[in-house]
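User: Quick sanity check before I run a bigger batch. Here is a single chain. Can you write out its predicted 3D structure?
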Amino acid sequence: MALVAGVDTSTQSCKIIVRDAATGADVRSAKTAHPDGTECHPDHWWAAYCEAVTAVGGLDDVAAIAVGGQQHGMVCLDADGEVVRPALLWNDTRSAEAAEQLILELGAGVRADGAKAWAEACGSVLVASLTVTKLRWLKDNEPENAARVAAVCLPHDWLSWRIAGHGPKSQGGDGDLGALCTDRSDASGTGYWSPRDNAYRLDLLELALGHTPVVPRVLGPHESGATTPWGAPIGPGAGDNAAAALGLGLAEGDVSISLGTSGVVSAISPIPMSDPTGLVTGFADATGAFLPLACTLNASRIIDAATRLTGASYDEVAAMALAAPAGAAGVTLVPYFEGERTPNKPHATASIHGLTLRNATPGNLARAFVEGLLCCQADGLDAMVALGLEPSRVFLIGGGAKSPATREIAPSVFGCDVIVPPEGEYVAVGAARQAAWVLAGGDTPPTWPIAGSTVYTGEFEAVVREQYAAVRELTYPNN
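Assistant: Done. Predicted structure follows.
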């Protein structure tokens, strides 16, 4: 039995799972913590990985390994492979102004033109999460550090590099920057790689940083760019959303809606997508296709708010919501508690509409909160459909999918059956499945069945979406 390992180097932790390469059967796993914050020295990732390797019982029996990781994080190395400064992570917003500057520069001072130009160039209108904006921030705010940058890579690239035995010269490594490798999914989140052209846009990298450092070689979906010290091939890895899609076994037309702190709507598309409005980012996936993605700032915490407002537990909120009628007897929540990104209303707040003396009940409020959560995600899906996506199946994952109300009401809001897979570390599973693909070769990854998925069905309730659409723009429409 050949074994493979998948690593998820996420914002919060390092997770390692070991699976049977042929069947995907779970063998063993371990998890270690990363420091909190929006910046992190990559040495912490390496320490967490080494600790997880020990906790999982070692990896010497693993025939291949791959790493999935948080997208966008800026890892800058000098000529000796030393980390120039702690990495700015995807959730570090200090580069928001830099994003606006770069949009205007590419648009010759006209934001709409710049947004269109960036969308065409790299599939995304710039926001603070993208690596290219962080590089501009570095150039403007830490020019001495910017001048030292000899190579720039992403968290999963850097960890794969270390697993292959490379490292900074001060720690006995070879500092070989030319050995850095990545994959197309993670490269597509940098802002200087084109999913449409499958190539770097080094002119955009230079625009941001002022010079052109070494960038990782972009590997094919099951190409190995290195081996471990014990001789196991290392897969190209993937960004977290692409790795999760691979772990879930998503195929063309499949949609994943992840309800975490934020909401992420992503889909597998056979063609690249670009959206000059910025609602949809046109990333690549880990198989050779594309992964358009829309992100909402508000998701599972909407249900948290419902528990505080009603004074009920999560189970009680779910029961009340399921007992209330579709459309909550006219009560509608626009759930922009933390502002919103889809649509772009950063200064908006949440609002409740349609309350009367007759419908102002805890049950209707609970139902309105669940429907508002789902309608917010449906806006992201609608934005993709407007670009030509033809959804076939919808998968619901994340902490917010644990609620029975969310699961059972979702089909009536999305207008289709909803598949809820069992809880799992799907980024790490996707990385392990990729490692198995590296071993097996061929045009498609090995089939790993997911046991225990539940399909939820229901009739589309047009009233829910109609009520939501009627009041959505009443919430700070100019923000």
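The radius of gyration is 22 Å.

User: Great, the batch can go ahead then.
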